[in-house]
Specification:
The chain has helices at 3-29, 34-58, 67-92, 94-103, 110-151, 162-170, 195-218, 220-225, 228-239, 243-255, 268-277, 282-296, 300-345; strands spanning 179-183, 258-261, 266-267. By secondary structure, the protein is mainly α. It has one domain. The chain has a three-stranded antiparallel β-sheet.
Length: 346
């Protein structure tokens, strides 16, 4: 395990504990409204991982793209976020504008402070992305080889250990497979920025984030508890942690981990993806929830407008996560797992 991974693995429990305590403190001192409580509590974890992300950003690997290209993309990020947030902000969070106008030292008022707020928000998002990604990378780079080798010990009977049973469930390994060994068949990599990996991860994060949060956002039960403003903010926070589920199966696919058996090979990433996505039917949820909204007489125009803000932010976060991961982490993450696996097999 590298020094960076060791430091991250040691820091994560402290980050979670500090975020938990900070979230409890925020909920005790703020509004007792359910939406505000959940928003404050969940936001504390974004702040916690953003703090970890500062360390991860400083210790990040060299990017695959040229520095000036990366800098240009990241400098455009505040503008891209502003184009998403500002058109919806006055409708979604008017209290933020009131706060900015009241405390701004500039005559230009809201416009200047809105840009300042967007810049701060962008930095928090970027550092939080680094924090979440570095956590997933550190844990999986350190332990994946052992998990793969533990799969070889699965016998589908009472002799299986708890770890073996968990591995079988996570990877969706059918009972009928006679496991001989686990092999790696890595996806070819030319050492450059992988557009395939970038787009694949971005689409997967966006799809899963949309599936999970759409159910929360459009569910009439939550609608009766949360305001639309709180719902869009809470679901945006949830999206920050969707990569924790997506990156593991993505790297499992890229390393080509598969089970050799007497029948055909079984690729582990397919089982992981099925396990993650099973039970979520976006089209069904969207149609059913909107139908219920119409039946109960909710304001469909306002709901659609607010939901569009969430979808736009989710799309941007998916692209940001995918870019940071692909540019700074993907290559060394993949190489580290392969190297650890090959050493463990000796």
């Amino acid at each position: 395990m590298s020094k960076k991974d060791c430091a991250t693995v040691r820091a994560v429990p402290h980050v979670i504990l500090a975020s938990l305590m900070f979230g409890i403190l925020l909920t005790m001192t703020g509004s007792s409204d359910a939406g505000q409580v959940l928003l404050r509590f969940s936001s504390s974890f974004v702040i916690g991982f953003a703090a970890l992300g500062i360390y991860s950003f400083i210790r990040r690997d060299k990017g695959l793209l040229r520095t000036r290209i990366t800098a240009g993309i990241l400098l455009l990020t505040p503008l891209m976020i502003a184009l998403i947030i500002i058109p919806f902000a006055d409708h979604l969070v008017p209290e933020v504008y009131d706060f900015l106008v009241k405390f701004t030292p500039f005559e230009t008022g809201t416009a200047v402070m809105a840009l300042f707020l967007v810049t701060i928000f962008t930095l928090v998002m970027m550092f939080a992305c680094h924090g979440v990604i570095s956590t997933v990378v550190a844990y999986f780079r350190s332990y994946t080889a052992r998990i793969y080798l533990s799969i070889e010990k699965i016998r589908n009977n009472a002799s299986d250990t708890g770890r073996a049973k968990i591995s079988r469930w996570i990877y969706g390994i059918p009972d009928i497979i006679d496991i001989k060994e686990v092999e790696l068949e890595p996806v070819p990599d030319d050492g450059n920025f992988s557009l395939r990996a970038f787009l694949s991860l971005a689409v997967s994060i966006f799809a899963l984030g949309l599936m999970i949060s759409s159910y929360v956002f459009l569910n009439p039960i939550f609608e009766s508890t949360f305001s639309l403003e709180d719902a869009v903010l809470v679901t945006t926070v949830i999206t920050f942690f969707v990569p924790v589920m997506v990156i593991p199966w993505s790297i499992t696919r890229d390393t080509g981990a598969k089970i050799k058996s007497q029948a055909r090979d079984y690729y582990l990433w397919k089982g992981m993806r099925k396990r993650i996505y099973e039970g979520f039917f976006t089209f069904f949820f969207l149609l059913s929830m909107f139908a219920i909204f119409l039946y109960l007489g909710y304001d469909l125009v306002r709901t659609s407008y607010t939901y569009l803000a969430y979808v736009s932010m989710t799309m941007f976060l998916s692209l940001l996560f995918a870019f940071i991961y692909t540019n700074y982490y993907h290559r060394h993450f993949k190489e580290g797992i392969i190297e650890n696996f090959n050493e463990a097999k000796k």
